[in-house]
C-alpha cells in the first residue's frame, strides 16, 4: 500500500523522479520543485528520523535527475550515484531498525527477568 499520488505531467512539462521500487518516491519538475511524493506503508512503521532520511534521499535523487536533465523512463532515469546513495540510505535505515529491535528485545529480557524474580518472591 502506498500513501500519496503522482501528478499527471502537463503536456510538454517534464518531470523527474527518484528510483521506482523504493519505499519513498519523489517527483520534481524541471526546476527541482517537489510535485509528488509517495510513501509505502512499511516506511511509516520506522522512526521519524528514518522516514525523514529516506524521504530526503528520494527528493534529492529526483532533484539530481532534474539537474542532470534525465527524464523518467524507469529506474535507468536515476543517475547511478543517486541510486547508490539511495541504496546506502536504505541499508542505513535497515541497520538502524535492527539496532532498535535489538534494544527493545534487550529491554524485554530485563522486564521478563524482573517479572520472574517477582513471581518467585526474590
Write a short abstract of this structure.
The protein is an alpha+beta fold. The chain contains 3 helices and 4 strands.
What does this structure look like?
- The chain has one domain.
- 53% of the residues lie in helices and 16% in strands.
- α2 runs antiparallel to α3.
- The longest helix is centred in the C-terminal third of the chain and has 40 residues.
- It is rod-shaped and about 70 Å long.
Any descriptors?
122 residues; alpha+beta; four-stranded antiparallel sheet; 3 helices; rod-shaped
Number of domains: 1
Largest sheet: 4 strands, antiparallel
Give the amount of beta strand, in percent: 15-25%
Shape label: rod-shaped
User: Radius of gyration, Cα only, in angstroms?
Assistant: 20 Å
> Pairing-aware structural class of the strands and helices?
alpha+beta
How would you classify the quaternary structure? Answer: single chain
Give the termini separation. Answer: 49 Å
Low-confidence stretches: 5-12, 73-78
Helix content: 40-55%
Give the number of DSSP strands. 4
Average pLDDT score: 77
Amino acid at each position: 500500500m502506498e500513501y500519496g499520488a503522482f501528478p499527471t505531467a502537463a503536456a510538454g512539462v517534464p518531470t523527474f523522479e527518484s528510483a521506482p521500487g523504493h519505499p519513498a518516491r519523489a517527483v520534481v519538475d524541471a526546476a527541482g520543485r517537489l510535485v509528488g511524493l509517495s510513501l509505502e506503508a512499511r516506511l511509516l512503521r520506522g522512526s521519524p528520523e528514518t522516514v525523514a532520511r529516506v524521504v530526503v534521499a528520494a527528493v534529492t535523487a529526483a532533484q539530481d535527475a532534474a539537474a542532470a536533465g534525465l527524464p523518467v523512463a524507469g529506474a535507468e532515469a536515476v543517475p547511478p550515484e543517486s541510486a547508490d546513495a539511495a541504496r546506502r540510505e536504505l541499508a542505513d535505515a535497515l541497520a538502524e531498525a535492527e539496532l532498535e529491535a535489538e534494544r527493545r528485545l534487550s529491554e524485554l529480557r530485563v522486564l521478563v527477568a524482573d517479572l520472574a524474580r517477582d513471581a518467585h518472591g526474590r
